[in-house]
Specification:
Layout lengths: L23 E6 L6 E6 L4 H15 L8 E5 L3 H4 L1 H9 L4 E5 L10 H13 L7 H18 L12
Helix pairs in contact: 1-3
Length: 159
């Protein structure tokens, strides 16, 4: 559900073609400059989170920066799996996970970014294909980063 306008006493109905398509957004926000780095996936699995970690390798890894990085994680299942634990351990020389308490989304700053993305950029639009949905998400992330004055680095997309 999203906030929208409709005549008083009437339910707003938006025609949506076909089945509703969903995408999982996995992302991080750089605390220094506010840049969002987002991975869009059809699923929300450990392999998708590891793909996000690989992007972070390129941006913040030991070859890119000498500053240690702290990654704030909630206790979602994809953050606790064996594959993810191994991937985090492989990056322990430059990446330190900081675990939020369970069931505390109000402590996770990126939740506000997801709310902004949904309410201001994606809501009240009919997107006719999965490709259109993904393009809208990428355009919204780009707009959010630009509004924050972040210099956006385009990374090659995974196939």
């Amino acid at each position: 559900l999203a906030h929208t306008w409709a005549p008083k006493g009437f339910d707003l109905k938006v025609q949506a073609p076909g089945q509703a398509k969903r995408r999982a957004l996995l992302g991080v926000r750089d605390a220094a400059d506010g840049e969002l780095v987002v991975e869009v996936a059809k699923t929300k699995r450990s392999t998708d989170f590891i793909r996000l970690l690989e992007r972070l390798d390129w941006i913040y890894g030991p070859k890119a920066s000498t500053v240690p990085v702290v990654l704030v994680l909630d206790n979602g299942p994809i953050h606790k799996s064996k594959a993810t634990t191994k991937a985090l351990e492989e990056r322990s020389s430059w990446l330190t996970p900081f675990w939020l308490p369970a069931y505390a989304p109000e402590l996770n700053d990126i939740e506000r970014d997801w709310r902004t993305l949904k309410r201001l950029h994606i809501a009240n639009r009919v997107l006719r294909s999965e490709a259109e949905l993904e393009a809208a998400v990428h355009n919204a992330i780009h707009a959010i980063n630009q509004a924050r004055g972040v210099h956006v680095v385009e990374l090659p997309m995974a196939a």
